[in-house]
Specification:
One of its GO terms (molecular function) is transferase activity, transferring alkyl or aryl (other than methyl) groups. It comes from Falsiroseomonas bella. There is one protein chain. The protein folds into 2 domains: about 20-40 and about 165-325, Rossmann fold; about 45-145, Rossmann fold (3-Layer(aba) Sandwich), CATH 3.40.50. It is built from 15 helices and 10 strands. It has helices at about 10-15, 25-30, 45-60, 80-90, 105-115, 130-145, 155-160, 165-170, 185-200, 215-220, 245, 260-275, 280-295, 315, 320-325, and strands at about 20, 30-35, 70-75, 95-100, 115-120, 145, 180, 205-210, 255-260, 300-305. The strands form 2 sheets. Strands 1-2-10-7-8-9 form a 6-stranded mixed beta sheet, sandwiched between helices. Helix 9 links the parallel strand 7 and strand 8. The longest helix is centred in the last third of the chain and has 17 residues, at about 280-295.
Length: about 325
């Protein structure tokens, strides 16, 4: 769609984000490393695509009707909840968003600001009934509401197969050799992999994983087994491969693991040298793209996701006290 087109509200404004050439990463590897600017979506993150895809699917199945009363419940680290709340507002629906209270304060404040019914819970492992995903499912069942179920609802991956992947193909003119990104639900990686590999089978798909997550091991060995930890939010899985990710296992060629110091290096570097202010998952993705590019060698094109903006993590990523307490590097200009 041309940039001059007029779109209809939130539902029309999601997607069609630009690819940004990451100058320093490209020069360091001799490759073209391109970041898809998902922070430019109306809700500020790549999760707007999943939220919209899930709600569009609910409308098509008759579970929700635009302009008629309806309620959507979701368990989230924050960004999917923001997308769902805004998309619901645009249709006259209510949203109930269940979030672990340990997530960045900025995201919690934003959810309250946009009118979501925010339910904070203690962080619990997936096997615990108190885990935020299970709490959201029970709430939806008790209320007779729609449960978004972003982890296992394949409408998530389908949204990326229909939009994100084709956009990357068109924006690169089909000249893309590899795609890498981190996974929370796996919807982005699964959907983009499906779209790109249907166009050219030898495009390399690489899962990027933070410390503490078991998805790196899942790709390498078939077993979900994580070690360590990470301050990143909304990515990684310690207990299982969600349905969206598992649906595309045969399309994933490899995995890389990126620790927090390497992630922070990219977050700080992008902000101060390229004027691109992104969150931790985007920093991890760029670090992974550099690794993939070096494995491929000069002359290749690697695409990754710039998932959201840094302002949602100011109290963590840009808080020297928080970082020093964890033995992590601080922003050089804030030392």
């Amino acid at each position: 769609m041309p940039a001059t087109s007029v779109v209809d509200g939130f539902w029309g404004a999601v997607g069609r984000t630009p690819l940004i050439r990451l100058k320093r990463a490209s020069e360091a590897t001799g490759c073209e490393i391109l970041g898809k600017a998902e922070f430019m979506n109306p809700g500020g993150s790549v999760k707007d695509r999943a939220a919209l895809g899930i709600l569009q699917d609910a409308v098509e199945r008759g579970l929700l009707t635009p302009g008629q009363p309806g309620t959507i419940v979701e368990g989230t680290a924050g960004n999917t909840g923001i997308g769902i709340a805004l998309a619901a507002n645009a249709m006259g629906w209510k949203s109930i968003i269940v979030v672990p209270h340990t997530q960045a304060k900025e995201k919690l404040d934003y959810l309250r600001m946009i009118g979501a019914d925010l339910r904070l819970v203690d962080p619990k492992p997936f096997a615990d009934p108190g885990n935020y995903v299970h709490v959201s499912r029970r709430l939806a069942e008790e209320m007779g509401a729609v449960w978004a179920n972003q982890f296992d609802n394949l409408a998530n991956a389908a949204a990326h197969a229909a939009t994100t992947g084709p956009e990357i193909w068109e924006q690169t003119g089909g000249r893309v050799d590899a795609f890498t990104c981190a996974c929370g639900t796996g919807g982005t990686l699964a959907g983009v992999a499906r779209a790109l590999k249907s166009r050219r089978k030898n495009i390399r798909i690489v899962l990027a994983d933070p410390g503490g997550s078991g998805l790196y091991s899942w790709v390498k060995t078939g077993e979900v087994k994580g070690e360590g930890n990470s301050i990143t939010e909304g990515i990684g899985q310690a207990a299982r491969a969600p349905g969206n990710l598992a649906s595309a296992r045969e399309l994933i060629d490899d995995a890389v693991q990126v620790q927090d110091p390497e992630m922070l290096e990219q977050v700080f570097d992008l902000q101060m040298h390229e004027g691109i202010s992104v969150g931790g998952s985007a920093g991890l993705n760029v670090a992974a793209a550099i690794r993939v590019a070096r494995d491929l060698g000069p002359g290749h094109t690697v695409v990754t996701m710039l998932c959201d903006g840094a302002a949602r993590y100011q109290s963590k990523l840009f808080n020297p006290e928080f970082l020093r307490a964890r033995g992590l590097p601080t922003p050089p200009w804030m030392e």
